[in-house]
Amino acid sequence: MTDDIVVLDHGALLDGRLRNTALVVVNNFDERRSVDLLVRLWRSASVVVLADGACNKVADMFNALGIIDDLVPHAICGDLDSADPDILSIYKAKGVPVISAPSQDHTDLSKCLRVLALWQPSKQMECFPERQILNLERSDQLPLHVTIFGAFGGRFDHEMSSINALYMFRKWFASLTLLSSTTLACLIQPESAVSIECHPKRSGPTCGLIPIGCAVESVTTSGLQWNLSSHRLEFGHLVSTSNALVSSTVTIRCSAPVLWTVEINSST
After folding, report:
1. Interval 202-245: pLDDT, tens
2. What's 182-267's CATH class?
3. What's the CA gap between 119 and 125, in Å, rounded?
4. ∠149-61-106 over CA atoms, to 5°?
5. Would the keyword Transcription be found if you checked this record's keyword annotation (predicted)?
6. Which residues contact 184 (CB under 8 A, 6 or more apart)?
7. 267: helix, coil or strand?
């Protein structure tokens, strides 16, 4: 571990103030509770990609609000087994690329993240055929902070798949955040200390540190009601759930990747 500190500004993310952001929308979200947060994230994002299962919900919700012509995704991606053909036609007419990726070895979320990586400067991505059908122009060339919206609230296996994506793609982007109308989660890496800037009104108080994938031999925190001091986290032993924020800044040092989760209030 180095002495560098990685800052994750979740307050700016929830406010729509974070720069160089990308939004991936998947299917597990409650339209009634999510609309304000989703619209705020969408308007602030440099790039928006819809998983094919999400385009039905998004189109119906935005059409009801009268904003379907204002908020248009940059791409729709997936195996296209759950997308309404009429809705796909609407988006195609708006110039949205619809990328069919039928492989069953990858989830629609992972397919979206692979497509999203094309918007980042990388020589490794130049050979991807999708580059020829996507509008890849961006005003900047910095790595993206990616939010996966709709990651919680549906089937448990889908939620676990979203968490797995944090591990699979953790080195592809500047940051990866899972989000729903009630929960935010991200993977804390062991290479550096991490400082999380929480939203003073929209974050917490309940939070937790979950050792998914392996035991974490040492976790040290500040800013929590029950701070950890070189504690070992492992399923079957100690797992830090139902902890609470006592500060808008939380610092975490860990010896292995650990999942940070905090409740959010999307209505404020």
Report:
1. 888 999 999 998 999 999 999 999 999 999 999 999 999 999 99
2. mainly beta
3. 9
4. 40
5. no
6. 10, 14, 177, 178, 203, 261, 262, 263, 264
7. coil
